[in-house]
Amino acid sequence: MSSLRSLALLLAVTNVAKAEYVWPTKYDHFEDMLVMHSGYRRFGFGDLVVPCGFGSNTVGRQTAAEWVRTAFHDMATFDHTTGKGGLDASIMYETESGENAGTAFNNTLSDIWEFVSPRTSVSDMIALALVASVASCGGPEVPLRLGRIDATEAGPLGVPEPQDSLETIQADFDRMGLTTEEMIALVACGHTLGGVHSEDFPDITGPEDVSPSNVPKFDNTHTEFDPAVVDEYLNNKGINPLVFGKNETTNSDKRVFAADGNVTMHKLADAATFKSTCAEVFEKMINVVPSTVTLSEPIQLIKVKPYLDTFQLNSDGSKFEVELHVRLRSTKGKGYESPPSSVTIDVLDRKGNRTSLQAAHATLKGGQSYGFFSETFDWYLLTTELGVAAGAESFKIHISTSEGEEVLDNGGTGGYPFNDGVISGTQSCLDTTGTQGNVTFDLYSAVRSDLVQDLDGVPWISFAHRMPQQGAVTPRIVVEKISMAEVSTSVDGYKFFKGTATTPSSGWSTRYDLGITLKNGKEVTREFIRTPSTSC
Ligand code: HEM
């Protein structure tokens, strides 16, 4: 498969030029969702798709299969001559169209909606959903690039249907920018999971038993990412309703698989080739995006990653209360396989003084998190207080192992920033007594006094509303900039500001950024803060 090989080569070359990780980035949250599925800290996304056969306890449902199908249908309207369509979440508005029959799409969108945020578009989540499904079912690692932008309305039709002729299906894949070999591989890789629902496609399954539980599968191992769908086709002995169906008109897999005289199918019969080819075509599929979108480099798992979970003023404003986690990748061959003898946080204040503080291995759930592909992570925790008078500039992480001490200074930037210029106020609270289905947040920030005199305008909140959308199950993220006003209370070194955000109660759990703009044009921000749940 020369085109697949050249794609792999291109991606390998792209990977060489990756920049060193500098914390924080706008994709930190996504990297968490990608790898933290169980253990000490977990992000809940993996629960929805593990194990491979899981279907939210709904008869006939296999979530992994639905997520993969959703990614294909969203992408399949792409037109490479215009650069329009592709993986852009337009499927949100297209679930009523005949080519998107079944509940798979709205199920998938309902699964992912709670993860959608100003940093997580629905289309990036659909791409992640494909990656997670394939991983959960024992398939290959599919590299994940981010930066997809969501469509705001339905796109054109264009998903191939089982009754289409081979010429029509080939023309569709050609429009998507995919070759005949890629078409065959993509259909085989997709149809190794799941099956055909009799309720939605009785013409294919036969009218005898139309029920939620009657879902004839594509192969005999529908919960394993393996080439059984290929083997059964080549041996002419199987259960695929799109190959062995009584209705020849809807045997689209049979037509697609034979499109190049079975050359590709014979190659895919080898388990290792099946996996590597599926990784290539799936990666290509999720990277089919509108030509106006530029995707990031593939997400790399971070070896040492800090999480400044708490950084706030204590009640009298004399101390910063700090809770800092450090996550060390401990995956065999890829991280710290034997636990370090110590993990030390070297704190630099704004007067130039340094203090070394020991982080302890977290104890809850063994202090470890687990992800797909046998990924493991060890967690270290530092809970401390730092004097406000001296300020908190940044920290370095020292890791001592039998091989010596490693000092991490945030990719050569000199340290991981505390960012003490703007702090989230502990008084922030939620008022649920509002009218018209809304809730109101009182959001506070503490701004360092020396910055207040340099302010250009007032401190602001960038609040992400999760607005319900007519005709779509996923909310739309609408970001509102809210001005803050100074409040009378203050402490030595900080002045307090308050802003109010009113938002639909259905989307109250969301995120916001706090920020100030200085006269020199520089912005100081504290970002991606979770809305409070404490009552006002
Ligand atoms: C010629 C192209 C294709 C046709 C005509 C086709 C047709 C179908 C049909 C009729 C179903 C049954 C849906 C249901 O009952 O819920 C189905 C299921 C499925 N398709 Fe395709 N498909 C095609 C290509 C693909 C591709 C390229 C992928 C993925 C890359 C894919 C992934 C899936 C998956 C995972 C299912 C199982 C869904 C479930 O069990 O809920 N399909 N396909």
From TrEMBL:
EC number: 1.11.1.-
SUPFAM superfamilies: Heme-dependent peroxidases (SSF48113)
Domain Plant heme peroxidase family profile as annotated: residue spans: 121-239
Cited PROSITE patterns: PEROXIDASE_4
Coiled coil regions, renumbered to chain: none
Keywords of this entry: Heme, Iron, Metal-binding, Oxidoreductase, Peroxidase, Signal
Keyword Signal appears in the UniProt entry: yes
Keyword Iron recorded: yes
A GO MF term: heme binding
Pfam families for the chain: peroxidase
Region forming the signal peptide: 1-19
Gene Ontology BP annotations: cellular response to oxidative stress; hydrogen peroxide catabolic process; response to reactive oxygen species
EC top class, as a word: oxidoreductase
Function, as annotated: Destroys radicals which are normally produced within the cells and which are toxic to biological systems.
Similarity comment text for this entry: Belongs to the peroxidase family. Cytochrome c peroxidase subfamily.
Protein's name in the database: Peroxidase
Organism in which the protein naturally occurs: Bionectria ochroleuca (Gliocladium roseum)
